Amino acid sequence: xxxxxxxxxxxxxxxxxxxxxxxxxxxxxxxxxxxxxxxxxxxxxxxxxxxxxxxxxxxxxxxxxxxxxxxxxxxxxxxxxxxxxxxxxxxxxxxxxxxxxxxxxxxxxxxxxxxxxxxxxxxxxxxxxxxxxxxxxxxxxxxxxxxxxxxxxxxxxxxxxxxxxxxxxxxxxxxxxxxxxxxxxxxxxxxxxxxxxxxxxxxxxxxxxxxxxxxxxxxxxxxxxxxxxxxxxxxxxxxxxxxxxxxxxxxxxxxxxxxxxxxxxxxxxxxxxxxxxxxxxxxxxxxxxxxxxxxxxxxxxxxxxxxxxxxxxxxxxxxxxxxxxxxxxxxxxxxxxxxxxxxxxxxxxxxxxx
Length: 354
Ligand SMILES: [Zn+2]
Fold this sequence. Notes:
This protein is of the alpha/beta class and 354 residues long. The protein is 47% helix and 15% strand.
């Protein structure tokens, strides 16, 4: 347990890829108390564009939001979303998935984009590999990722945000360890564990994450990118992860699937319609304090947009509360007992899913 800037860790960051956590107001985000959200520098660069955001005084002023922002570099999105991408030693050439225009970005460009956007924590351009990928491919991509990290550090203005190193290495433990050791030798503010949750078996993911974390400088924060479910957060915290982001709570909320302490519920289910209780009587979010599950199911059925906001508020509060409890359990030295009890409830929740 610790802090990174104004954020108590371990922490979860709601995902606002395009500079908006969908369905929420900036005020909602501030009240939820996460302290930091995630946006994607590449998406903001493509739309609305860095110059426009700069003209509005940076992404926070553009969004009317006063909390922290971590920006992902978009390396992963260049490779996963772009219809054409070519890698050079000094950067990437890719076609925009939005309008087909060609763009060329170097590690330095990606640093400058994030400095102009005005986010607090920046990610360097990296070359992720998919799953599965051969050892030779993974090794080549890792070498380039480390070279690009060094180029990013050289380009970084230390007055304008903190740069993390992205630690890759695919599914090869010795590459993961090498990536961790080399990144630890560099003056990065923290470490982002990349290339996880891409379809690899979960036990392999945790084994690799564990090897990665063991080889990192323990004095700097560790951020596990794009992971995961409530059970994943608990396991990650146990291994020493300080920061998480995941689209799951916000995306499921928009699909009417809600986390509760007694099992997840779907607004689509007929049983939800006649339920006079809140989503979760133990939750202190606005949706639970104000509305019945039956009313939310009604809003969902008639397609009223307010239900997206209410659901998102609830699911994010569930994640926030889970980590609050985790921090408390760590603070009182009983994390393992607390997590065992919580995990057994989470697994019975999965069985109880409707
Ligand atoms: Zn709630």
